Amino acid sequence: MSDLSHIRNFSIIAHIDHGKSTLADRFIQMCGGLAEPDRVKDEIEKIIGIDATDAVTCSAKTGLGVDEVLERLVATIPAPTGNIEDPLQALIIDSWFDNYLGVVSLVRVRHGRVKKGDKILVKSTGKIHLVDSVGVFNPKHTATADLKAGEVGFIIASIKDIHGAPVGDTLTLSSTPDVPVLPGFKRIQPQVYAGLFPVSSDDFEDFREALQKLTLNDSSLQYTPESSDALGFGFRCGFLGMLHMEIIQERLEREYDLDLITTAPTVIFELVLKTGETIYVDNPSKLPDVSAIEDMREPIVRANILVPQEHLGNVITLCIEKRGVQVDMLFLGNQVQVTYDLPMNEVVLDFFDRLKSTSRGYASLDYHFDRYQSANLVKLDVLINGDKVDALALIVHRDNSHFKGRNLSEKRYDVITRQLFELAILASIGGQIVARTTVKALRKNVLAKCYGGDVSRKKKLLEKQKAGKKRMKQVGNVEIPQEAFLAVLRLE
Fold first, then answer.
1. What is the rounded CA–CA span in Å between residue 482 and residue 96?
2. Which helix (H) or strand (E) holds 327?
3. 48, 41 contact by CB (below 8 A)
4. What is the spatial distance between Cα 78 and Cα 74, in angstroms, rounded to a whole number?
């Protein structure tokens, strides 16, 4: 039944030969018999809290009830309001970049009208653009004479920068700049930051051009140049979340053929200095000296988790492990909605993956930033061969510092190539070492050629090797592979 074309062809033959109900009709009846509208109505009322007693029963497979749904939409949803004679006031619903047309903005006209040749004003930027074309999608791109109050359509004004028409902004005519801004608009602020560095320094300019092209299609992506002693030149990028970061990295690697190293993701921390100044830090390497900090605050999110009752205990255990504080719990039929205040730094790393694992995929998560809260935070540095690797630094809670430091050093041990000299991997907080792992040296058998002779000759070769290893440890360089940085993302 995976290939419906075979069923359709066979049903036509069956209908011609026998003149009875076709196999396709029987298949549709069988699928329709699996529907449980009464159970679904009950779940909608208990879980979502919407009255479903007069819900229209319909089927997208058979077409049953589609006419009733359309009639209900017309009767229930109010008609758009607005006055054509008032000054233009249009809300930007969506924007995307076209290589030939520039920015195409999908707008809803609240008041007034707009047509080709009008000069429009973008309220948030204050820039004026000449309208090249207006129209609607039905579903094809169809140009019209104008867009009037109550209509939804597109406006093309040769805008070459996606930030020139941000989603949620208000458009008006340049002759009526005093039109009020429609409520609800605010600029997108990244929540997660990570450093992206090209593996080869020769790809830096290609990397810059790739980011510029991506930001034309994704206004939520932000980036600034950054340099690292361990990784060279790259960019500090801001993302909406971990999924957004993974999508951007995949697009950069697949569409632009780049090999990238991504550092551990961090969130924005609020710091109050002893001078009274408040600063925000998104990079552990930019953390000021501890003696200059009065208070460190981490972002807290309000997380709503919907989970079946049988997995509730596992979810609560996970939230407690992530330093969560329970706010509310509500039983909705067979589901439980729990609300927790969680540190965003814990959520962005592996919380979602572990939530899905512990609930067998049934739990759903929704969270939003709530506030900054004081916490006992410390900077966890990683030292390899006595040198700090700034790209591996993390800002963590002091209670978890020893555990995460041990995990960091152990994971580095698994992925760093063994050298001809002994290599120490340290995790430290300031001058205090909280974890240590030693990568044993590769042993070169210098006695292989000594098949006989005096033992003093063997001792001389061993002493020479020992002195060479000591000198190599002092001046040797360690190449850190990409897996060492990616392993930070998979801390458990």
1. 34
2. strand 325-332
3. no
4. 8
Q: Contact at 8 Å (CB) between 191 and 245?
A: no
**Measuring CA to CA, which residue among 265, 359, 362 is closest to residue 47?**
362
Give the per-residue SS3 of 435-470: EEEEECCCCCCCCCCCCCCCHHHHHHHHHHHHHHHH
Q: Are 294 and 278 in contact (CB under 8 A)?
A: no
Q: What is the 3-state secondary structure (H, E, C) of 174-238?
A: CCCCCCCCCCCCCCCCCCEEEEEEECCHHHHHHHHHHHHHHHHHCCCCEEEEEEECCCEEEEEEE
d(CA 200, CA 53): 63
Provide CB contacts within 8 A for 407, sequence distance 6+. 491, 492
Q: Dump pLDDT digits (tens) for 384-406.
A: 766 777 767 778 888 877 777 77
Closest of 368, 301, 308, 306 to residue 337, by C-alpha: 306
- The separation between CA 48 and the C-alpha centre of its own chain, rounded to angstroms, equals 26
**Residue positions counted in the chain:** 492
Q: What is the pLDDT of residues 123-134, one digit of tens each?
A: 888 888 999 999
Nearest to 226 by CA among 204, 254, 255: 204
Q: Cα(335)–Cα(271) distance, rounded to whole angstroms?
A: 40
Higher pLDDT, 36 or 420: 36
Are 300 and 341 contacting, i.e. CB atoms less than 8 angstroms apart?
yes
pLDDT in tens, 432-446: 777 777 766 666 665
For residue 109 the two structure tokens come to 């006209």
Residue type, 39: R
- Hunting for tokens 């949803």 — which residue is that? 77
3-state secondary structure of 492: coil
Q: Do the beta carbons of residue 478 and residue 257 sit within 8 Å?
A: no
CA distances from 453 to 91, 446, 461, 462 (A): 91, 14, 13, 15
Separation of alpha carbons 305 and 361, rounded Å: 12
> At 64, phi and psi to the nearest 5?
-65, 125
Task: Name the residue with tokens 């104008």.
Answer: 146
Residue 158 CA to residue 162 CA, distance in Å, equals 11
Q: Are 226 and 391 in contact (CB under 8 A)?
A: no
Tokens of 22: 């076709």
Structure tokens, 10: 């066979």
**Cα 233 to Cα 225: distance, rounded to the nearest angstrom:** 8
Written as six digits, the tokens of 251 are 């697009």
**Alpha-carbon gap, residue 100 to 103, rounded angstroms:** 9
DSSP string, 254-287: HHS---EEEPPPB--EEEEETTS-EEEE--GGGP
